[in-house]
C-alpha cells in the first residue's frame, strides 16, 4: 500500500523555521515507528504571491485536495499590507479552508503543567485546563454575501459584510462538537449572540435540535459570546467543548489560547467531510501567526506546529498512541525546563533556539522507545 501523503505548506514569517523542525519529527516517525509519509512541499501566502502573483496557485489548491492531510505553517507579513484584498496572504489560507470545505476547526487550549506560571491569570485558575474550542470555519461573516466597500451616495462610503448561517452549516459543526464531547467530559457550551442577531437565534435553535434528536446524552448549555469571553478569563475550567461561529471562534480561541501562557504552544485541526479513503479532508496548523518581528532569527517556538502534526496523527491517520507519544515528548521537554524565548520569564536562563527545541523533542522521542 502507498504511504499516506502529506502536503507541507510552510508559508511566511516563522512558518518555514518551525516547519523544518516538524519535518524532522515526521522523518523520525518514518524511521523509528514505521510510519512513513510521502511528503511534498509547496508555497502559500506571501511566499506564493512572490513566486506566482497569487497567494495560492490552482496547482497547489489541487495538490491540497489530493493530499491525505495538509500541514500549514503561517501566512502574512507587513510586506503584503498594501496588496489588493484579493491578493493578501490570508486569502490563500481562506481559499484552502473554503474549497476543502473544512467546516470544523478544533482549537484545543491546554495548560501544560510546566507552563502554568506563564499565564497572565493566577495559576490555580489555569492549572490543568483542558478545553476544546470548535470553531465553524467555512461560513458566517468571513464568507457571507453581500460584502464589499461602496459609495454611500452621500459623499461617503459604506463597508458591508454579511453574517449568514444555514441549518445544515450549523448542524454539521454542532455534530462534530458533540462527537468530541463524548470522547472527553461530555459537555458542550454553544456561544452566539441570540440576544441581538437572528443568525444567533437560528444557531441556538439548531444546536439544541441536534442535541435533542441525536446527542441527548451530552450536557448542553448556551451562552452569549460576550459572556463567554468573560467566563473564559473568570473560570475557564467550567468548559469542556465550546462550539461557536467563525468570527466569535476566531476571537474566543485567541483569548483561550493566552490562558495557557503562550500562543507558541497551541495546535489546531481543520476538518471536513470524509474522503473516499475514509479520512476527513484535513488541514493542520499552529494557532500562532507568522510573527514577522522574530522571523528568520531562529527564535520561534516550533511546539505548536509539532503538536499540529500530533493532531494529524490522531485525526487523519488513526494513530492516537503515536500522537500521545509526541505530545508526551513535548511535555517532557517543557518539564525539563527547555524554553524558547516566548516561554521565558525575566530572570530565567538563556532561551534555546528553534533547532535546539527540535533537537530536544527528538531526544525525548528517542527516550520514549
Ligand atoms: C486564525 C487567523 C485567520 C482567521 C487569519 C490569518 C485569516 O486569525 O486562523 O485564527 O482570521 O481566521
Ligand atoms: Mg485568529
Written overview of the protein:
The structure is a single chain. This protein is an alpha/beta fold and 369 residues long. It has 12 helices and 12 strands. The strands form 2 sheets. A 10-stranded mixed beta sheet has the order 2-1-3-12-11-4-5-10-8-9, sandwiched between helices. A two-stranded antiparallel ribbon has the order 6-7. A hairpin with a 5-residue loop joins strand 11 and strand 12. Helix 1 runs parallel beside helix 12, helix 6 packs across helix 7 and helix 8 runs parallel beside helix 9. The chain is globular and about 60 Å long. Bound molecules: 3-isopropylmalic acid and magnesium ion (MG). 3-isopropylmalic acid binds next to helix 4.
Q: What percent of residues adopt helix (DSSP H or I)?
A: 40-55%
Shape: globular
Q: What is the oligomer described by this structure? A: single chain
The helix/strand series, from N terminus to C terminus, equals EHEHHEHEHEEEHEHEHEHEEHHH
Mean pLDDT figure: 96
**Unreliable segments of 5+ consecutive residues:** none
Strand count: 12
> Which secondary-structure class do the elements indicate?
alpha/beta
Query: In DSSP terms, counting alpha (H) and pi (I) runs of 4 or more, how many helices?
Result: 12
- Order of strands across the biggest sheet? 2-1-3-12-11-4-5-10-8-9
Distance between the termini: 26 Å
Q: Ions, cofactors, ligands: which are bound?
A: 3-isopropylmalic acid, magnesium ion
Radius of gyration: 20 Å
Largest sheet: 10 strands, mixed
Please state roughly what percent of the residues sit in beta strands, choosing from under 5%, 5-15%, 15-25%, 25-35%, 35-45% or over 45%: 15-25%
